[in-house]
Amino acid sequence: MTDQPPLLRLENITRNFGAIEALRGVSFDISRGEVVALLGDNGAGKSTLVKIIAGGLEATSGRMLFDGEERKFYSPAEAKAAGIETVYQDLSLCTNVDVVANFFMGREIVKHYFGIPVLQEKAMFEAVDKALANAGTHIPSLRTNVEHLSGGQRQAIELNRFVHWGGKLVLLDEPFAALGVEQTRRGLGMIQRGATRGVGVVVITHIMAQAFQDGDRMVVIRQGKVAGDVARGQTSPDEVISMMTGEALIGRAQEARSQA
User: Fold this and answer.
1) Which residue, of 134, 135, 194, 255, has the greatest Cβ tally within 10 A?
2) Which CA distances in Å does 251 have to 23, 222, 242?
C-alpha cells in the first residue's frame, strides 16, 4: 500500500442553480492510473460535476484537492495548465489544419533568427510522429488536415496530445458515442495505455458494456448525490442500473422496514 494521496479528491461538492440543487454533496476519490466510470441517468448531475472539475463551473460549496493540494479552477485554461483535460464527443480540434499543427496548438516550437521567429516544423513533425508511434496510433500522413480523418483518428490525436504534454487527469465525456466498433476498441485501448502511465481517467458513458470493459470503479450519480461507488469486480450491470434508477435504495428501505 502507498501513502500517496489520491490524484483527485472531491469533498461534499454542491452546486445550486437558483433554487435547483444540481449537486448535493458529492464525494469520491480518483487515484493515479485508475479508470473511473461515471454513470448516471440524464439530469443526474454528471456534466455539472465534470464542469466543476474542469474549471467551467464553480462549486457552490465543498472542496476539491488535486495532486495533493486544495485547488479551485476559475477557467478551463487553469485546469488544463494544472494537468486536467476534458475530451468531449465533438472534440476540440481545428479541422482546417493538419495533425502536427493540432498537436502543437499553442505550444509551437519557435527559434528566433535575428529577432525573427521561425517555426521549427521538422522538430514538431518528428515529435508528433514519435508520440503517436509510442502510443500505437497510426495515421497515414501527419500533414493531412483533421477534417479528412476518421472520428477515431481525431480522438487519438486529442488523447495522445494530452498524455504527451504531461496531463494527469483526463475527463472523457461520452467519448465513443459517434464511433464504430473498431474505433471504439482502439479508443478503449488508448485509455488503458494512458492509465498504465499513471494518468487518472474518468469516463462518462451511458453504455454499460464500455463501463465494465474499461472502468476499475463505478461511481453512480443519482439526483445530484453519489448513489454507488464500487469496484468493477464487486458489482454487476444490473446492480449499477438499480443504483441509477433508485431501485437499490428502494429495495434497502423496504428491507429495513420489514426488519423493524
Assistant:
1) 194
2) 23, 16, 9
